Amino acid sequence: MAVVTNKVIWPNYDQTNVKIAGKTEDDKTSLSKDAFLELLVTQLKNQDPLSPQSNTEFIAQMAQFTSVEQLMNMNKQLTQLNSDIGSASTMIGKSVTWQELDDKGSTVMYTDVVKSIVATDGVLYAKFEDNTMIKVSDIVTISDQTPVETEEPETDASAESAEDAETPDSEAAADSGEEQTS
After folding, report:
1. pLDDT tens for residues 82-100?
2. Which residues are CB-neighbours of 77 under 8 A, at least 6 positions away?
């Protein structure tokens, strides 16, 4: 009895084909800098020796390669910065703690509430109410903002002042009572 399988087994896989077959659709639709360079080298290998490519065309292709490489690097950096800003923005309104060295070289811990996140030259900073900024990478803890103490309602304040008013009178009455007994 024969066993039927749906797998095709090839004894000699070409590694290039395996890599290409393993790529996703996104990888197939974009041209990476490595693929662009590979195409350029292949073109140079297969050019007609009787009519070689002109220097101008070759320089133009090298300039295109450099442009593609720079655009790929810029895209990678912008993607990373976008991700970092998204992550750092969750700190807004949170209480953060960081450490700095004082004049004596001792480590001092500071805590404040983040008001905004600022990106300058690819570095993210947490900005506080007093406009001071620290690098996000210097932050050691992040926590929910501690509740701000609120003023007590007026009814409690008037009750306290009434108690305070009674206390001196009762002390005065007690003092006058003590004077009479003495």
Report:
1. 887 777 888 889 999 999 8
2. 122
What global pTM score does this model have?
A: 0.43
Query: 113 is in which domain, residue-wise?
Result: 92-143
Residues 78 and 115 in one domain: no
Angle at 154 between CA 148 and CA 155, to 5 degrees: 120
pLDDT tens-place string over residues 38-48: 877 887 787 77
With beta carbons less than 8 A apart as the criterion, state whether 116 and 90 touch. Answer: no
- Return the number of other C-beta atoms located less than 10 Å from residue 45's C-beta: 7
In contact, 91 and 131? CB cutoff 8 Å: no
Task: Return the closest-CA partner of residue 91 out of 132, 127, 43, 55.
Answer: 127
Is the separation of the CB atoms in 159 and 118 below 8 Å? no
